[in-house]
Amino acid sequence: MPLIYPIISFIASIAGAISGIGGGVIIKPTLDVATSDPVDLIGFLSGSTVLAMTTVALFRSRKSTVRLDKRISSLLALGGVLGGLSGKFLFDLIERSIKKESTLSGTQSIILLILTLAVLLFTLNKNRITPLNLNGSLQSLFTGLLLGGIASFLGIGGGPVNLALLYFFFSMDSKTGALNSIFVIFCSQLTNLVFTVLSGEVPPFHGPVLALMITGGITGGLAGTCISGKLSNRQVDYLFSAVMVVIMGITIFNILESFVLPA
Q1: Alpha-helical regions (H) of 20-69
Q2: How far apart are CA 156 and CA 243, in angstroms?
Q3: Are 158 and 185 in contact (CB under 8 A)?
Q4: Which site in 63, 121, 133, 181 is 20 to 30 Å from 252, CA atoms measured?
């Protein structure tokens, strides 16, 4: 059903714009469940949608009281770009060696489940954890590299790990971390898309489906940015935790479908 694509991208982009997870971490596993599309196509559709959503969210954030630290944010973004390219290279390498789509999708789902569970436990115990308050250039670059690499390899555009690491390493509150996360996701996704197009690795896709998903991503990004301005940091944390639980549920189903149900 074509309508499933914009509905998923709209809902995911609302949550992604508010919490800073980008939306791809919801779109990718949900499309795995709801469609029979191949892994590379789902990654392309998800990445294109996330790029549209983050573009809108960053544009609208100019009126927000939350601001980016130019030095740290730029280094995070540069690291995100390098990590995104590295993650894509690793994914392409593994994709060529693993011929079975369900195995590749299931492997991604297992990694995503482990990361999401770790981040949820971290978030629930955040008040007991003392952040490091780092501000070094190499530290910022390495963090961006890690974030971009994980997001690109898993095909999720961004992810829950962004908020946890940005809080732990740089002591960013929920809204500041969300804005930095969206900025890193935007830079890494833009680079990934340009690299995919220039290398001729764009998978076959239906134009109307991509247009519907991007439309859902843009409208969801607009709605999410408006809602975010009315929420407190605590409310953003609650939403973030709820989204983690939903992602874990979808991911567990994907794992079962990939490794258990076919047998």
Answers
A1: 24-34, 39-60
A2: 14
A3: yes
A4: 181
User: What CA–CA distance (Å, rounded) separates 5 from 138?
Assistant: 39
Closest CA to 224 of 69, 50, 80: 50
Report the predicted TM-score, pTM, of the whole model to 2 decimal places. 0.81
Q: What is the pLDDT along the chain (263 residues), one digit of tens a residue?
A: 678 888 988 988 888 778 767 677 788 888 888 888 888 888 888 888 888 888 888 887 777 778 888 899 999 999 988 988 888 888 888 878 877 777 877 888 888 889 889 988 988 888 888 888 888 899 999 999 988 888 778 877 666 788 888 889 998 887 888 888 888 888 888 888 888 888 888 889 888 999 999 998 889 888 888 888 788 888 888 888 888 888 888 889 888 887 776 55
Spatial neighbors of 97 by CB under 8 A, at least 6 apart, are none
Strands (E), 168-225: none
Take residue 140 and report the two structure tokens written for it.
Answer: 């910022």
Give, rounded to a whole angstrom, the gap between the first and last alpha carbons of the chain. Answer: 27
